[in-house]
Amino acid sequence: QYPITVLDRENQSQHTTARVSMLVDLPHRFKGPHMSRFIEILNRYHGRISLRNIGAILQDMLRRFNCETAHIDIRFPYFMKRMAPVSGESSLMNYACSFAAGLIRRGGKDDLDLVVEAAVPVTMVCPCSREISARGAHNQRSVITIRVRSRGLIWLEELIDMAEKAASAPVYSLLKREDEKMLTERAYDNARFAEDAVRVVARQLKKDRRVRWYQVESENQESIHNHNAYAMVVSAE
Questions:
Q1: Furthest CA-CA distance within the chain
Q2: Residues contacting 131, CB < 8 A, separation 6+
Q3: Distance (Å, rounded) from C-alpha 179 to C-alpha 82?
Q4: Cβ partners under 8 Å of residue 209, min gap 6
Q5: Hey, which residues does 181 pair with through a beta bridge?
Q6: CB burial readout 53-89, b (16+ within 10 A) else e
Q7: Any residues with CB less than 8 A from the CB of 30 and at least 6 apart, and which?
Q8: What value does the mean pLDDT of the chain take?
Q9: Residue in 112, 15, 18, 19 with CA at minimum distance from that of residue 61
Q10: Contact predicate 69/155, CB 8 Å
Q11: How far apart are CA 59 and CA 111, in angstroms?
Q12: Dihedral sign, CA of 171, 153, 56, 48?
């Protein structure tokens, strides 16, 4: 675990704590890596680990380990201020986000691959249940996960907003009764399957010229079945 700085659309930057995985390939003549070097590289970027310098960190890994392939996976909670829809009560929501990057050196050239991910908790109401029931419909806590490769900066906030709008309703850390009533009714009026959610997000990403690859997953934690409902859409490169 290590402190990092993440770009924040509203506040410019946000400090959080990440779980960092660092991997390198090994030249055949080495029995194993010098483990301390991973920590030395992290310490060199202490307080400055961010999306902007992942490439520099990976280049350091190639140089220090005398290898041709390096990977880093940075997973962290990302916090956003959310206002309850009726009462206006303010609270912080946390989202599980990550940067996964790899650098391969071929013929003296470095090929960087970067995937940005946001996993967003949402509410889903089953359209089938609503259709066949005389009263109510069963709902699910769901997670919509969006992964993108892009040509330019895409804010985590954009991915989070996209996922929440594709669901039956978003979830909040703090709600009053008037908010619960509004969100329950909104979700009922906006019933969607897991497949619906991933298609809605995929259509948005397909129209965004910054996005060159995407993968969208939705997993509904079923409330009346002993299984989950899962859907995924992935684009071609």
A1: 70
A2: none
A3: 13
A4: 151
A5: none
A6: ebeebbbbbbebbebebbbbbbbbebbbebebbeeee
A7: 66
A8: 92
A9: 112
A10: no
A11: 11
A12: negative
Render pLDDT for 9-61 as a digit per residue (tens, 0 to 9): 888 888 999 999 999 998 777 777 788 899 999 998 887 788 888 999 999 99
Cα angle 91, 6, 172; round to 5: 20
> Quick one: 186 exposed, middle or buried, by C-beta within 10 A (0-12, 13-18, 19+)?
middle
The interaxial angle of helices 54-65 and 35-44, nearest 10 deg, is 150
Distance CA 117, CA 159 (A): 8
d(CA 213, CA 217): 14
Q: Tell me what the mean pLDDT of segment 87-112 comes to.
A: 92
DSSP-derived secondary structure for the chain: -EEEEEEETTTEEEEEEEEEEEEE---TT-SS--HHHHHHHHHHTTT--SGGGHHHHHHHHHHHHT-SEEEEEEEEEEEEEEE-TTT--EEEEEEEEEEEEEEEEETTEEEEEEEEEEEEEEEEE-HHHHHH-SS---EEEEEEEEEEEESS---HHHHHHHHHHHSSEE--S---HHHHHHHHHHHHHT---HHHHHHHHHHHHHH-TTEEEEEEEEEEE-SSSSS-EEEEEE---
Mean pLDDT of the 106-117 span: 88
Q: Which residue is listed with tokens 């400055």?
A: 48
| 60 vs 158: CA distance, rounded Å | 31
Mean pLDDT, residues 122-128? 94
Q: What is the pLDDT of residues 151-163, one digit of tens each?
A: 888 999 999 999 9
